Amino acid sequence: MRRTLSALVTGLVIATGGVACSSSSGSSAPASSAASHETNPPGDIPDSQVFVAWSPPGGGYTVKVPEGWARQQHGHATVFTDKFNSVQVEKSSAATPPTVNSVRSVDLPALQRASSHFTLGKVGTVQRSGGRAVLITYRTDSAADPVTGKHVRQQVERYVFWKNGSRVVLTLSGAVGADNADPWHTVTDSFRWS
Question: Which interval of the chain is the signal sequence (predicted)?
Fold first, then answer.
């Protein structure tokens, strides 16, 4: 029995030593759990983020949103948030489709009035799987943190979709410098009228 136990312990020590040696020599041995976790700067949405389809109670459209984010209702808008990031969706009626000129003359002044330290990026049209949208990009300050009172500079993408008298505004925001281009494309390209 002693000989079997001694052989087992020796085998375990050799096996463990072998893994340690092969890990440090750059072989294809599994990485440690600490090394396998992705580290993201503040505001970056991790590559492992899962997205789930969401529709409002009245239907009309679906959009994929990040799974696990907090959901709140603000009037007619539904907002999904996590740390420095948010996805806001709001549906309303509109007799005519948006154009670059209508968004510049109507939406833009309202955004400037409602935003702190507003800086316009661009206004143009983009094509997504769910149809054409008018896109406004801009920067603004976040609301003050309730604990520290500090503001975070936000990069915002605002997409205005329209179909048959219905207008949906999809607004995505995150900290300036965060690399969220792929997640934001996943969300905006998932938008579908139903």
Answer: 1-20
pTM of the full structure: 0.77
Report d(CA 14, CA 31) in Å as an integer.
18
Tokens, residue 131: 């149809």
The neighbouring-strand residues paired with 91 are 168
Residue 74 DSSP one-character state? E
* 106 compared with 21, residue with greater pLDDT: 106
Distance, CA of 2 to chain centre: 58
Q: What are phi and psi of 94, to 5 degrees?
A: -150, 125
CB-CB neighbours of 69 under 10 Å: 17
Torsion sign (Cα): 173, 174, 176, 180: negative
Q: How far is CA 149 from CA 4, 118, 142, 143, 144, in A?
A: 65, 19, 11, 9, 5
Among residues 107, 105, 155, 166, which one has the least CA distance to residue 131? Answer: 166
Domain at 51-193, CATH from 3.90.1570.10, 3.40.1000.10, 2.60.40.10, 3.10.20.580 = 3.40.1000.10
Tokens 């996590």 sit on residue: 82
User: At 145, is the pLDDT very low, low, confident or very high (cuts 50, 70, 90)?
Assistant: confident
Query: Which of 61, 62, 65 is closest to 51 using CA atoms?
Result: 65
Distance CA 140, CA 145 (A): 15
- Pick the range with the lowest mean pLDDT from 43-47, 92-96, 184-188: 43-47
